[in-house]
Amino acid sequence: MVSRRLLCGSLSAFALAACNALVGFDDFERVRRVAEPPDEEEEPEERDAAPRDAAVVDPPVVEAGPDAPELASTTCPASAPAYYPAWKFPGPRARPCTPADLTSFLTHEGQTFESQKSAMEAQNAACAACAFTLETDNEWGPIVKTNDGRVFVSFGHCYARAGAPEACGDSALELEWCLQKICNVCTDGQSLADCRLAEREKGCKRGLDRTLAACGNNAQIINNTCRGSGDVVGVLCGGK
């Protein structure tokens, strides 16, 4: 299962570039796919149709209310984050979700955090409890509602749980957190795609460099195991 709208480029066969990790990255993301240089005879439209990547998450819905007193920015690019969450390896947890739950998750993706969680609770309450967590929770699940109202997909935790080094998960978490904060809900200014592309080399350059260095030997995990938001739920909470 992968998220439906993924926006990234590619590097050489021996380098890994990150969007955002996952995140999504729709975004940790998450992280750009490792790609072989295109064959000379390959047509440009064929290259454009190549599988796109992981850590880029769909634009989260800004939520207002007593549990989200701050509103995430809608003008892109926004300011770089002044705060990054501390990395914490995802501990053992029950994995109650089923393949049907992952299908339901993707069906409701793009709605508010509360709407997504309510839909999952109606189908499988245990899956909802595993999948949907808050930034203030002691341990994060795959989908996190941040204190400023963003819906964050934790690609870095998926990478680590799937077997990538902790440094890979940590750096991917930084990169996706940064990209989502700067390029959160692009209703004004740059488009989401343009913002994420530019900020990998600007406001989020440190996270990109760290991710390239730490995740370069984990293409299978990034390109396949944790490629999209549904995969992140599946790896951390079951159903995959």
Keywords:
single chain; 240 residues; mainly alpha; 3-stranded mixed sheet; two-stranded parallel ribbon; 10 helices; 38% helix; disordered N terminus
Can you offer a commentary on this structure?
The chain has ten helices and nine strands. It has 240 residues and is mainly α. The strands form four sheets. A three-stranded mixed sheet has the order 6-7-8. Strands 1-4 form a two-stranded parallel sheet. The termini are close together.
Any chance you could write out the topology, listing elements then pairs?
Blueprint: E1 10-11, E2 21-22, E3 29-30, E4 33-34, H1 44-48, E5 75-76, H2 99-108, H3 113-123, H4 125-131, E6 132-134, E7 143-145, E8 151-153, H5 155-161, H6 166-182, E9 188-189, H7 192-199, H8 205-215, H9 219-225, H10 229-237
Parallel strand pairs: 1-4, 5-9, 6-7
Antiparallel strand pairs: 2-3, 7-8
Structural class: mainly alpha
Overall geometry comes to: globular
- How many individual β-strands? 9
Query: What's the helix-strand series?
Result: EEEEHEHHHEEEHHEHHHH
Instruction: Bin the helical content.
Output: 25-40%
The number of domains: 1
Q: Name the poorly predicted regions.
A: 1-69
Calculate the terminal CA-CA distance, rounded to whole Å: 8 Å
Number of helices: 10
**Main beta-sheet annotation:** 3 strands, mixed
Q: In percent terms, what proportion of residues is strand?
A: 5-15%
Q: Please give the radius of gyration in angstroms.
A: 16 Å
What assembly state would you assign to the polypeptide chains in this entry?
Answer: single chain
Mean pLDDT: 76
Biggest sheet: strand arrangement: 6-7-8
